[in-house]
Specification:
With 171 residues, the chain is of the alpha/beta class. It is built from seven helices and eight strands. It has helices at residues 13-25, 60-66, 84-94, 97-102, 119-134, 140-150, 162-170; strands spanning 3-8, 28-31, 45-53, 56-57, 73-78, 104-109, 111-112, 153-154. Strands 1, 2, 3, 4, 5 and 6 form a six-stranded mixed β-sheet that branches. A hairpin with a 2-residue loop joins strand 3 (45-53) and strand 4 (56-57). The protein is elongated, with a radius of gyration of 17 Å.
């Protein structure tokens, strides 16, 4: 039986989780960018993990297209620490009901560190932050954004992989 953990990571949190999962299960680990569609048939069980950026999982459309006939385990790694509303938003923004029923979804808390953002996104964030800072009365969400901008968070912890590992071992 040959199994693999695929990942797509920009800032390292998803990669860390994918590495831990692969090590714990003694499975192969590969960046999704280096995985070919023709390889699907070579694996019995596949895990795919992606970071969440502005509510969207990286490469999820391609993954769902490639694996529309083979159920896989999918995990999202986002900036919140298991906030149910945010996790539901991630599900709703990335999957339809049939896809959620067909594949198995997990959420793993990552973190937010705006200092790692580069390019045009960094410029856009900086402009947004300046606008929010100048507002006299800020919403609760705006205050939270400012707090996370100046105080990075990191919720990555190996203990969070246990549900995925347990599930994969039972398949």
């Amino acid at each position: 039986m040959r199994n693999i953990v695929l990942y797509k990571s920009k800032y390292g949190n998803t990669f860390q989780y994918a590495t831990w999962i692969a090590e714990e299960l003694n499975w192969e680990l590969k960046n999704f960018s280096k995985f070919k569609k023709a390889e699907i048939k070579n694996y019995d069980i596949i895990v795919f993990g992606s970071g969440v950026y502005v509510g969207k999982m990286n490469k999820i459309k391609k993954v769902l297209e490639w694996f529309k006939e083979k159920p896989i385990i999918i995990f999202a790694c986002g900036g919140n620490n298991n906030v149910e509303k945010d996790i539901n938003d991630i599900k709703n923004n990335n999957f339809n009901e049939n896809q959620l029923a067909f594949h198995t979804f997990f959420y793993l808390p990552g973190g937010v560190d705006f200092s790692k953002v580069k390019g045009i996104i960094k410029i856009m964030i900086n402009v947004f932050i300046k606008i929010v800072e100048k507002k006299k009365s800020k919403t609760k969400d705006e205050d939270a954004i400012l707090k996370s901008y100046y105080h990075p968070t990191n919720y990555v912890d190996k203990k969070h992989i246990q549900a995925i590992v347990s599930y994969a071992k039972k398949i």
